[in-house]
Amino acid sequence: MIVPLLSGGGTRIKILESMAFGLPVISTTIGAEGLPFENGKHLILADNAPSFATQCTALIRAPQEAQRIAAAAREEVVARYSWAAAAKTFLDLCAKTGN
Fold first, then answer.
1. Cα–Cα dist 13/3, whole Å
2. Of 7, 37, 52, 74, which has the maximum CB count within 10 A?
3. Looking at the predicted structure, is the pLDDT value of residue 12 above 90?
4. Are 76 and 37 in contact (CB under 8 A)?
């Protein structure tokens, strides 16, 4: 999934959805702004056209690297944003309030 955003706001739902589907993501820093992912571990960041093209080509030529990034991202998305993670957060909050 490529996300060449140069401006914008709001939550980057398409990045989260792509990661949940097990797709590697290449984005600009602005495109992934506010998301808790590490460059090189969960996604690839590139902020100009030549770098973006280089990174896209590199992942196409290195499918094992693309798979590694996609798997790490999916694992992080599931851990943070799945229904199970949301339910655990809710139950933890309930436990802290005594309800």
1. 11
2. 37
3. no
4. yes
SS (H, E, C) 33-63: CCCCCCECCCEEECCCHHHHHHHHHHHHHCH
Give tens-digit pLDDT for 32-89: 988 999 999 999 999 999 999 999 999 999 999 999 999 999 999 999 989 998 899 9
Sheet holding 44-45, edge to edge: 2-3, 26-27, 44-45
With H, G, I as helix, E, B as strand and everything else as coil, classify residue 26: strand
Distance CA 12, CA 83 (A): 18
Q: What is the DSSP code (8-state) at residue 66?
A: H
Residue with tokens 């792509």: 18
